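Supplementary Methods. Inverse-folding protocol.

Structures were first reduced to a discrete structure-token string of length 345. This string, shown here, constituted the complete conditioning input.
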């Protein structure tokens, strides 16, 4: 058992005593002191680790800026605060696309320790708005030094199609912004479709690679959608890359690639595309290889490749072009030969 957990348990035990003998009272003081010292040491260690990561990120950023052309967008990816390589990709795009507005919005950030825009905030000092449904997570961010070191607006809100535009307007992020990051593990397609008061220059959107790259499909619209309740595997959520490409084209955006891990796609507004188009040879999105599927008891099952789609084949999906809803299995093949080759299928 970790020492801090042991001291925390001991502290709770001695605090529960109504009347404390001197020896027990002394034990409580000593336990409280030890617990406090451990917490302070851990906070200092976290701060030191974050400072080291920020320094390494700055070095990687400076190196990235010398890269003029890439085979695939993921080639410039590196991780500081993002889950995968989004930090490096964003940093490279910021250095290559002129006249970006230094403002961003990201929702679905949890406690913001792992997010697409945190390095952008700290490295380039952009103004930002972040939102998450968890009051605890947002309180944690508000209590951090990010909120006084930077112009960061922190909002606790469950995002859906009915409130997304109000969120932008209420906090002064309507109109043109530099970057919008969408990651809510469910109704991402419908929320992006509902946005009409903001005009991002770059959009990052999480796509569900389990749905493949042949069909423009999403989970049906449902304001109460919850990824885990919808299907225990946690594989049934969001939309395919083709669905987002379809929506992006309607909104005047073009897909320019994805991270290597096949989770986040990057879109650039068409008026800015000439600045970046010839710098990227392959504008495709990648399939995913991660194995995050769950059993009914929430334990990992490590299902891989095309077997992931098999696990949710009876779940309904909506074709965003026709509006038709059908079980996933009725679509037939989901993956292109290129994706199947990468997946080892």
């Amino acid at each position: 058992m970790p020492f801090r957990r042991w001291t925390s348990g001991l502290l709770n035990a001695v605090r529960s005593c109504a009347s404390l003998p001197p020896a027990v009272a002394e034990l409580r003081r000593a336990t409280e002191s030890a617990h406090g010292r451990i917490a302070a040491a851990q906070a200092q260690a976290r701060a030191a680790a974050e400072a080291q990561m920020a320094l390494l990120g700055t070095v990687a950023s400076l190196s990235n800026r010398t890269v003029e052309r890439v085979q695939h967008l993921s080639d410039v990816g590196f991780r500081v605060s993002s889950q995968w390589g989004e930090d490096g990709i964003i940093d490279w795009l910021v250095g290559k696309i002129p006249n970006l507005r230094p403002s961003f919005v990201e929702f679905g950030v949890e406690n913001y320790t792992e997010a697409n825009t945190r390095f952008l905030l700290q490295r380039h000092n952009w103004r930002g708005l972040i939102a998450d449904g968890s009051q605890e997570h947002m309180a944690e961010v508000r209590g951090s030094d990010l909120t006084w070191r930077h112009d960061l607006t922190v909002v606790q809100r469950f995002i859906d199609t009915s409130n997304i535009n109000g969120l932008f307007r209420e906090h002064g992020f309507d109109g043109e912004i530099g970057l919008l990051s969408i990651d809510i593990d469910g109704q991402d397609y419908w929320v992006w479709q509902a946005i009409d008061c903001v005009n991002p220059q770059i959009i990052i959107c999480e796509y569900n690679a389990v749905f493949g790259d042949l069909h423009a499909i999403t989970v049906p619209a449902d304001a109460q959608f919850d990824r885990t309740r919808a299907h225990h595997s946690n594989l049934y959520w969001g939309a395919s890359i083709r669905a987002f490409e379809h929506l992006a084209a309607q909104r005047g955006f073009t897909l320019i690639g994805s991270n290597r891990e096949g989770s986040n796609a990057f879109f650039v507004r068409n008026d800015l595309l000439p600045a970046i188009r010839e710098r990227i040879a392959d504008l495709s999105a990648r399939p995913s290889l991660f194995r995050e599927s769950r059993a009914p008891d929430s334990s990992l099952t490590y299902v891989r490749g095309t077997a992931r789609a098999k696990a949710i084949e009876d779940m309904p999906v909506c074709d965003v072009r026709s509006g038709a809803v059908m079980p996933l299995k009725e679509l037939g093949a989901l993956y292109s030969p290129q994706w199947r080759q990468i997946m080892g299928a």
